[in-house]
Amino acid sequence: MDLVQLRAAFLGRVSGIPVQVDIGEDNAVSPCYLPLMSNYAAYGLKIDSTLHLPELPAADGGPDVIVRFGKEKYPLPAAGEEGLIRATEEEALLFFGTAGHFSVREGREIVINPLPNAHDRSVRLVVLGAGLGTILYQRGLLTLHASAVATAGGAVAFMAERGLGKSTTAAAMYSRGYWLVADDITALQFGSSDRPKVVPGYPQLKLWPEAAAFLGDAPETLPKLHPNFTKCARPVTAAFSTTPLPLERIYVLQDGKVPEIQPLSPQEALASLISCTYGQRLFQAVRTSSHFLQCAKVVNSVPMRSLKRPYSLAGLPEVVQLIEEDLAQSI
């Protein structure tokens, strides 16, 4: 069944799957049935979804990806097992204990099988995170744990494992006037040119309340990613790049006593790309050799630096200045 047939099969029908949705500032929830498909855009893809995705901008045109609800029954994995459950060339099955099972198929479909009374924000977090990350990988893109902003020379990415300040660094650059390209997941597209391009994600930053406050936002006015989470969703209403940009540089964030930028050796750069690939268990199961070749292409075409700095919000202006000075040296 092609995407046109998929869309026709589900357009005009309700999903028939109850989920919890917010009905007030107190985060009270009640079951509801989702309405007709809505059309969105993210990572250069047109997405038709029966799950409301308010984080994404609206889009017109035929879909590249369908997000729908299913009624498949999967056995629950062992206690504590989350993320990728199994993968083939055609399908990846994901499970998250706060949301349910997600079948991601052939780079064009995400089928949601939620747990009873799963909160809609839990489901959205998976769809917009691991779900889209898997879609992009199935479509042949290299997905990195990184946030990216636009510069005069293209885009720069801040790459690191979870909790090391990718979004905060990108937000600090954004507050200095740099346009956001992607947050949390940076997708690289390979074409005829030697240098890969960064595909725009969607206009949102995920920030801790103290980081949002330091950068001039009022955290209490920002929606939480989930009622039980501390992190906020900071919409980017302007200064969001919608055009794929050549990747100018990658900064690998690391802890350090003082802000310092140093070039990485090819071996260090390759190891960093592999360790910071989004969805490691997926590439270890499927298309391992092509993933390695993509990482090697990045090492051979894009300068990579280590960016060491103490974790200090007060030190962010100095870090931004150091990045700007490093970028200026390449002009």
Structure commentary:
By secondary structure, this protein is of the alpha+beta class. It folds into 2 domains: 3-138, no CATH class; 142-328, Rossmann fold (3-Layer(aba) Sandwich), CATH 3.40.50. Helices cover 26% and strands 31% of the residues. The chain is built from 8 helices and 19 strands. The chain has helices at residues 3-10, 120-138, 166-175, 209-214, 266-275, 280-285, 288-301, 316-328; strands at residues 18-22, 29-33, 38-42, 45-49, 65-69, 83-87, 91-96, 100-105, 109-114, 142-151, 154-159, 180-182, 185-189, 197-199, 204-207, 232-235, 245-255, 260-263, 304-309. The strands form 4 sheets. It has a 7-stranded mixed sheet, sandwiched between helices. A 5-stranded mixed beta barrel has the order 10-11-17-14-13. A hairpin with a 2-residue loop joins β10 (142-151) and β11. The radius of gyration is 20 Å and the shape is globular. The N and C termini lie far apart (50 Å). Residues 1-18 and 20-33 have low confidence and may be disordered.
